[in-house]
Amino acid sequence: MNQLIKVKDLSSSEQKSAEEGHSRLKDITYSESTHVEESYSGKRKGKNIALPFSSTINVNRKYLFNNFKLDELIFAITDKCPFRCKHCFYADTMDVKDEEGVYGMSLDEITKISASLGHFAKMLITGGEPFLRKDVADIAKIFYTQNKIRHIHLPTNSFHTSRIVSTVKKILE
């Protein structure tokens, strides 16, 4: 049976290895409320090692962002949605404005995040309802141009069908 152990229970070489293990991360989730959500787990003689993301990022921030290959990015571009679906894990925090009364990041902020990430293959642009942002095609193009993504997924509630169709046509141009 696997048992959870803490990093402090590891030898110094195992601890260093666990802390550097973030180079094997497969994806990072960005959103307005939580810029990076991630967890690391590895194996040690049949035991699970749980290392909080905050520990790994504080250990060696430059190493993390320069030495791992990002495969997929899940990017929440808005907290707005006209529905409150029971299955939605954002339902309780929808339509929350920041201190300046804004519902999401600006294109300049998104461009800076994109520029910091390098190339990766897949992206999920989500929210709330991503098609409520009139600049969703611009956001997709920023990541396509700067990060060379090959697959963009845009989950939607399909409420604004005409807007969705016109936006997807823009993205495909």
Description:
By secondary structure, the protein is of the alpha/beta class. The protein has a domain at 69-172: Aldolase class I (TIM Barrel), CATH 3.20.20.70. It has helices at 12-20, 53-59, 61-67, 107-115, 136-147, 161-172, and strands spanning 4-5, 27-30, 39-44, 47-52, 72-76, 122-126, 151-153. α4 (107-115) links the parallel β5 (72-76) and β6 (122-126). α4 packs parallel to α5. It is globular and about 40 Å long. Pfam families: Radical_SAM (PF04055). Keywords: 4Fe-4S, Iron, Iron-sulfur, Metal-binding, S-adenosyl-L-methionine. Residues 77-164 form the Radical SAM core domain. This is Radical SAM core domain-containing protein.
- Give the overall form: globular
Kindly state the number of beta strands: 7
How many helix segments? 6
Q: Say what the CATH topology of the domain at 69-172 is.
A: TIM Barrel
> Could you give the order of the helices and strands?
EHEEEHHEHEHEH
Could you name the CATH class of the domain at 69-172? Alpha Beta
> Mind telling me the CATH superfamily name of the domain at 69-172?
Aldolase class I
Biggest sheet character: 4 strands, parallel
Q: Report the helical percentage.
A: 25-40%
Cα distance spanning the termini: 53 Å
Look at the structure and give the mean pLDDT: 68
CATH-scheme architecture of the domain at 69-172: Alpha-Beta Barrel
Query: Strand fraction band?
Result: 15-25%
Radius of gyration (CA) equals 19 Å
Which residues form runs of ≥5 with pLDDT under 50?
A: 1-11, 14-59
